[in-house]
Specification:
This protein is an alpha/beta fold. The chain has 6 helices and 6 strands, in the order E-H-E-H-E-H-E-E-H-H-E-H.
């Protein structure tokens, strides 16, 4: 049996896919705005997403990386290079048939409304994760993402703070705009059971985080 048998739908790549320093001015975006993938790790992204679909999974991707994080492009936020890279990111997702994107806080490409608008205009429906760690939260009239993280990393702030933040901010959640704490990381059975229990009670999306190459 697999995780999909238990009801998990998405299989997402997190940080580490990028070809660090291969792009313009030491970034990992080409002059055309294309995000540059480390081919040693991911030789064929399109084949990977196709395989995921064959297995009944919906593939997801990750942006605003912390590993070799990119700086401000020439022209600043909203400038020509910035918009070229943003459009290149969304075109990459569309062309490779991704169904999910996690947006972290490791770079300047964090405008969630702009991501929403560009994805909409690209014509490919996908789930958007706001991983801004308790910032850029929705309100009664604004939620341009499908789920939002309520706090920082579990291993940094601890489960007690995670649970307090979830209890505090879950009031802003709604159908299609779900609140969630950090991912469920491998740990003791007691800790994982506690996490699952709290997440289930609050209708938080269940996110597992692990290295698929580590069989330990």
């Amino acid at each position: 049996r697999s995780l999909s048998d238990a009801g998990y739908v998405y299989a997402n790549i997190d940080d580490g896919w990028q070809d660090c320093g291969a792009g313009v001015d030491g970034s990992f975006h080409s002059k055309d705005g294309e995000p540059l993938v480390n081919k040693a790790k991911f030789p064929d992204i399109s084949a990977m997403t196709e395989k995921a679909a064959e297995l009944g999974l919906r593939p997801g991707f990750y942006f605003n990386n912390y590993i070799c994080a990119e700086g401000m492009p020439k022209g600043g936020i909203g400038g020509e290079a910035y918009m070229r890279n943003m459009r290149g990111n969304v075109e990459f997702l569309r062309a490779n048939r991704f169904d999910f994107v996690k947006l972290d806080t490791g770079s300047v490409y964090g405008d969630l409304q702009l991501w929403h608008d560009l994805i909409r205009d690209a014509g490919r429906e996908m789930a958007v994760e706001n991983c801004h760690q308790g910032h850029d939260l929705p309100n009664a009239t604004w939620c341009p993402f499908d789920m939002f993280r309520v706090s920082g990393d579990l291993h940094v702030i601890g489960m007690d703070v995670e649970m307090w933040a979830l209890a505090h901010w879950v009031q802003r959640a709604s159908l299609g705009c779900w609140a969630y704490p950090d991912t469920v990381d491998p740990g003791s059975a007691q800790v994982v059971r506690t996490q699952f229990g709290v997440y289930a009670v609050t209708s938080a999306p269940l996110l597992l985080s692990f290295d698929i190459l580590d069989d330990a």
